[in-house]
Structures are given as structure tokens and as C-alpha cells.
Design a protein that fits this description.
- This protein is α+β, with helices and mostly antiparallel strands and 345 residues long.
- It folds into 2 domains: 210 residues, Orthogonal Bundle (Endonuclease III, domain 1), CATH 1.10.340.30; 119 residues, Nucleoside Triphosphate Pyrophosphohydrolase (Alpha-Beta Complex).
- Helix content is 43%, strand content 14%.
- It is built from 15 helices and 8 strands.
- Strands 1, 2, 5, 6, 7 and 8 form a 6-stranded mixed β-sheet that branches.
- α1 packs across α11, α2 packs across α3 and α2 runs antiparallel to α8.
- The longest helix is centred in the N-terminal third of the chain and has 16 residues.
């Protein structure tokens, strides 16, 4: 593949993004983590907010986990924020706050995989290593008409070998950015803009009209349905919230008390069987219904409903928060939507 046309195209059409104007490995790492599952226009404000709250990796490492999750709130895939925080702690405590400067050492860091390690090594330290994200997989599959599943072990090895063989000896870090940008702006998953592609004459998929057939991916599992029933417990001007723990979605975020059922309707027996013994009893007819909501995650479709009920007392081991305090707690987008409805009551 001739890279000159690609680099010329990149110099003209590349987006002006802040992480492209720095060699700070912390900034580059942060941008790559955010953009793993997020579009640039959505991720950019979070990138800026993170650097505002945690301008150095040491400040991020020393931050409270709730504060980190609060800044991440709304971006989704919250395990990224937890991994980001844990890796920052490791670099701060074990490496005196200094990132390793080679791919071989970066890949050893907890929470950093091959793609992120390559991105930091290439963009921060200009190491001669190919960066393979979803955009690059797509470009390479179409350019060379490769039908190997990109998610398979064989596919990852094949594409990694191909990407590194194509890597130019000079300005490989710019070439890596150009390949990623081409996939993001031109070689799109659907409706690729082939007429404006600098590599059109070299693209086998274009010549055989196979662009939309590539890349090949394993079929995604059908999203499973989950049913949540929240009880918004109010005591005067305060509300009860609890923190989600465990390995399920929204780990570490706060939510209203509730139950999950296998069916759409909660049923009185489900409420009673999950109701803590030391809490005051409530009557179902006293509940104020807020709304039903549907919330889509990558592999899960959530159906949620919320009810409001007033308590006279505050039982032990039951945390209540003011509206101002709740605003500062990390919460999912779904919980925020219910919270916003309370202002209309």
C-alpha cells in the first residue's frame, strides 16, 4: 500500500482534536479509554472535564472513587472509569506517577490492552508499532479483501501482522492517526464515502463492490430483557438512595431502592419478599406512579418503572440524601431521568 496519498489526505482533512496536540501519555491514554466505546463529539466534553478535575495522573489516583464516577456519569460502560482509576493508582503508587515509554512495558499495566498500549507507545513516544482499532480493522479488511473474522484469535493475529508490515519507517505515529481517521470519516461501517477515499484505487473491496460485506464479525448475541421496579422513598425533602455493588451493570453508582423481576410486572409478592424487615410497611395503593422507561445497553434492554412513596421515619442503615447531595452522587442516565421527573410532581 502506498501511504503518501493517505498522509496528504490526513494533513488536509484531519479533525483538530486536543489529544493530537500533545505527547503527554496521561492525556493520550485518557482520550483512548474514552473513545473506546464513545464517539468523538460525545467524548470530547468528558475528556475536557476529566482534565479539569484531574489534570495529572497523580490527582486522578488520589481522587475519591465516587468523584471519578460522578465526572464519568452519562458516558456509559462504567467499568472503563473503574479501570482508569485503578490503573492511575498503580502508576502513581508503583511507578512514581510515570508511564512506561514502550509498548512492551505499557502492555503490562493492569487495565491496558494491546490497542491502548500501542496507541500510547505510538502517539506519546513515537514507537514504531501499529495501532489497531475498529476503524483500522475495517480499512484493512476492505483494502485487502480479508474475510477472516476480526474478533477471532486468528483474525487478530492476521490483521496485526498486516498492519505492522504496512507501517512506514518514517512518521509511523502520523500514519497510525491517518488510518484511524480514514475509518472514522470515510471508510464508514455503512455507506462508506468511497469517492472521497485517498486509497480507492488500491482497495480490492471497492473494485469488487464488496465494501458492505467487510469486515466480518462474529454475530452479536441478542440483547436480553431485564425488568426493574424502583421505589423512590421520600422523607420530607430527602430521598433514599443506595449504591450498587457487585459485578453487574452500574457497579458503584447510586440508585433508588428497587427490585428486578423476570417478568414485566412486579407483583405484590415480589415487593413483600424483598422488603427489609426493619423498614416501615407501606401500602401499594399509596404509591405514586411516575412512568415507564426503556433504556438500551449494548447487550441488555432495560424496562423500568418507578413509584414514589412517603416515609414518616428514617430506619437505621437507610441513607437519605438532600437534592443537592444527590446531584453530586454518580448515577446512571436512567436514574437521572426518574430523578428529573420528581421536580414535576
Amino acid at each position: 500500500m502506498h501511504a503518501e496519498g493517505l498522509l496528504t489526505w490526513y494533513n488536509i482533512f484531519a479533525r483538530d482534536l486536543p489529544w493530537r496536540h500533545t505527547t503527554n501519555p496521561y492525556h493520550i491514554w485518557l482520550s483512548e479509554v474514552i473513545l473506546q466505546q464513545t464517539r468523538v463529539n460525545q467524548g470530547l466534553p468528558y475528556y475536557q472535564a476529566f482534565l479539569h478535575h484531574f489534570p495529572t495522573i497523580d490527582l486522578l489516583a488520589n481522587a475519591d472513587s465516587d468523584q471519578v464516577m460522578r465526572v464519568w456519569q452519562g458516558l456509559g460502560y462504567y467499568s472503563r472509569a473503574r479501570n482508569l482509576h485503578n490503573t492511575a493508582k498503580y502508576v502513581h503508587e508503583k511507578l512514581q506517577g510515570k508511564f512506561p515509554d514502550t509498548y512492551a512495558e505499557l502492555i503490562k499495566l493492569p487495565g491496558i490492552g494491546p490497542y491502548t498500549a500501542a496507541a500510547i507507545a505510538s502517539f506519546a513516544f513515537q514507537e514504531h508499532v501499529a495501532v489497531l482499532d475498529g476503524n483500522v480493522f475495517r480499512v484493512l479488511a476492505r483494502l485487502f479483501l480479508v474475510y477472516t473474522d476480526i474478533l477471532s484469535t486468528q483474525g487478530k493475529k492476521q490483521f496485526s501482522k498486516l498492519a505492522n508490515e504496512l507501517l512506514p519507517k518514517k512518521n509511523s505515529h502520523i500514519y497510525n492517526q491517518a488510518m484511524m481517521e480514514l475509518g472514522a470519516l470515510v471508510c464508514l461501517p455503512k455507506n462508506p464515502d468511497c469517492n472521497n477515499c485517498p486509497l480507492q484505487s488500491q482497495c480490492l473491496a471497492f473494485s469488487e463492490k464488496k465494501q458492505t460485506d467487510l469486515p466480518v464479525k462474529q454475530s452479536k448475541a441478542k440483547p436480553r430483557n431485564r425488568y426493574f421496579h424502583y421505589l423512590i422513598i421520600r422523607n420530607q425533602d430527602q430521598l433514599h438512595l443506595r449504591q450498587r455493588l457487585g459485578k453487574d451493570i452500574w457497579n458503584g453508582l447510586f440508585e433508588f431502592w428497587g427490585i428486578e423481576t423476570l417478568e414485566k410486572d412486579a407483583g405484590l409478592e415480589n415487593w413483600k419478599s424483598n422488603w427489609p424487615e426493619h423498614w416501615p410497611e407501606f401500602k401499594m395503593e399509596k404509591l405514586i406512579f411516575l412512568s415507564n422507561k426503556k433504556h438500551q445497553l449494548t447487550h441488555q434492554t432495560l424496562f423500568a418503572q418507578a413509584y414514589l412513596v412517603d416515609f414518616d421515619g428514617k430506619p437505621e442503615n437507610m441513607e437519605f440524601y438532600s437534592v443537592e447531595e444527590i446531584h453530586q452522587l454518580p448515577k446512571s442516565v436512567l436514574i437521572n431521568k426518574f430523578f428529573a421527573e420528581l421536580d414535576k410532581l
